[in-house]
TrEMBL record, chain A:
Quaternary assembly: Component of the signal peptidase complex (SPC) composed of a catalytic subunit SEC11 and three accessory subunits SPC1, SPC2 and SPC3. The complex induces a local thinning of the ER membrane which is used to measure the length of the signal peptide (SP) h-region of protein substrates. This ensures the selectivity of the complex towards h-regions shorter than 18-20 amino acids. SPC associates with the translocon complex.
InterPro entries associated with the record: LexA/Signal_pep-like_sf, Pept_S26A_signal_pept_1_Ser-AS, Peptidase_S26, Peptidase_S26B
Intracellular or extracellular location(s): Endoplasmic reticulum membrane
Protein's name in the database: Signal peptidase complex catalytic subunit SEC11
Natural source organism: Immersiella caudata
Record GO biological process: signal peptide processing
UniProtKB/TrEMBL annotation, chain B:
The protein's role, per its UniProt record: Essential component of the signal peptidase complex (SPC) which catalyzes the cleavage of N-terminal signal sequences from nascent proteins as they are translocated into the lumen of the endoplasmic reticulum. Essential for the SPC catalytic activity, possibly by stabilizing and positioning the active center of the complex close to the lumenal surface. Essential for viability.
PANTHER family in alphabetical order: MICROSOMAL SIGNAL PEPTIDASE 23 KD SUBUNIT SPC22/23, SIGNAL PEPTIDASE COMPLEX SUBUNIT 3
Segments crossing the lipid bilayer: 12-32
Protein name, as recorded: Signal peptidase subunit 3
Entry's localization field: Endoplasmic reticulum membrane
Length: 172, 232
């Protein structure tokens, strides 16, 4: 143990290795962001309002470019309400007008009523720029770890510490 | 070198690799399964426009269209082992008559609103459906022993009431012209890509046959005393 500490050259190499892993993950995330034109190309479902299609912890892949057609009714979109930072995954059920000023109304499949009450005060409809992507791909359950991390805050430092320890203690 | 930590790491790494490869195969299997959805009948049976409020505490009065319809569709080919649920929805579509001076090409439907939708779960996803315990028992019994039940994709509705009464942001919808109903679907997989109805054939997936109603015009606003007369 702590063999790296005895050899400063090895310790430096391990530190570089750790930095490489972190920066690779970051660049992959940002690269995906550029390709999909979405600030958050992968999101984790946080609520049950789209059940049975999506449950808590499912991973969704987003696409935010309108190459072939405009965002239209029936698409499942992720949007941010004005001045609130919680992304919501719901389906577009009404669209009035075309282009960037089209008025969009969303609704969760599992909710009885539409999202008018979720929107900001005085906001009756969404516009295209409120949307950060349409759902195109789906992997179940994989994102559950992030929900656990946010619900049990003590897990975060424990996991980070363990990961750091493993990387530092790894010989090679 | 061969500490238990490394072994645990390797085992977990191998497990995730296998899980992702299997998931990728399942997702890819969608593309080699033929799809031939078809709509035999989609027509309106009763049209009505009434005045109402958007919610109980609102003083704003708006016009709402109530479009009853008849549907006969066969979407059974969309049910495969990777289908979690099928979301079927009918939209009413109509062109804008006056978009502040600019004239849109007639093939652009600038207004679209869902009037009816339904979630059809695959038997493997029945336990996730948001229905009462008795309805769930009935649903499970209907497909006992069957992991895939394509017969659920056959939809027959006669003079169905719409789930949603639609309006326009202007609050006016009476006497709207050139309205059509269109059936759409969204296949939700257990893993993989989400797919919607297509207008053209792609590989083994055929375009949705039919699914568009004849053009119709919404009627004038229903007068109050007229309704009373009809009841009397």
């Amino acid at each position: 143990m702590l063999s790296g500490m005895a050899n400063p050259r090895q310790a430096a190499a391990q530190l570089m290795n750790f930095g490489l892993i972190v920066s690779t993950a970051f660049m992959m995330w940002k690269g995906l962001s550029v390709i999909t034109d979405s600030p958050s190309p992968i999101v984790v479902v946080l609520s049950g309002s789209m059940e049975p299609a999506f449950q808590r912890g499912d991973l969704l892949f987003l696409w935010n470019r309108n190459i072939f057609s405009e965002t239209s009714v029936g698409e499942i979109v992720v949007y941010n309400v004005k001045d609130k930072d919680i992304p919501i995954v719901h389906r577009v059920v009404r669209k009035f007008g075309t282009g960037s000023k089209a008025k969009l109304l969303t609704k969760g499949d599992n909710n009885l009523s539409d999202d008018t009450e979720l929107y900001a005060r005085g906001q009756d409809y969404l516009v295209r720029k409120d949307i950060i992507g349409s759902v195109v791909g789906f992997i179940p359950f994989v994102g559950y770890v992030t929900i656990m991390l946010s619900e049990h805050p003590w897990l975060k430092p424990v996991m980070l510490g363990m990961m750091g320890l493993v990387v530092v203690l790894q010989r090679e | 070198m061969y500490s238990s930590l490394v072994r645990i790491q390797n085992t977990f790494g191998f497990f995730t690799t296998v899980a992702f490869v299997v998931a990728a195969f399942i997702a890819a299997s969608d593309f080699v399964t033929p799809r031939a959805p078809v709509v035999n009948v989609l027509k309106t049976t009763n049209l009505q426009v009434v005045r109402g409020r958007p919610h109980y505490y609102s003083s704003k009065k708006e016009e709402y269209a109530i479009i009853k319809f008849t549907l006969d569709a066969d979407l059974s080919s969309l049910f495969t082992w990777n289908t979690k649920q099928l979301f079927v929805y009918i939209t009413a579509e109509w062109p804008s008559t006056s978009v502040s001076g600019t004239t849109l090409p007639s093939n652009v439907t600038s207004n679209q609103a869902v009037i009816w939708d339904t979630i059809i779960t695959s038997p493997s996803a029945d336990h996730l459906a948001n229905i009462g315990p008795i309805a769930l028992k009935k649903l499970r019994k209907s497909a006992a022993g069957k992991p895939i039940d394509p017969s659920r994709g056959k939809i027959t509705l006669k003079n169905q009431r719409p789930k949603y009464q639609i309006t326009h942001p202007s609050g006016k919808i009476a006497e709207t012209e050139d309205v059509t109903l269109r059936l759409h679907y969204n296949v939700q997989p257990w893993v993989g890509v989400l797919t919607w109805n297509q207008n053209a054939d792609y590989g083994l997936w055929n375009a949705l046959g039919g699914g568009l109603s004849k053009k119709f015009n919404l009627p004038a606003l229903k007068k109050k005393d007229e309704g009373k007369k009809a009841k009397a």
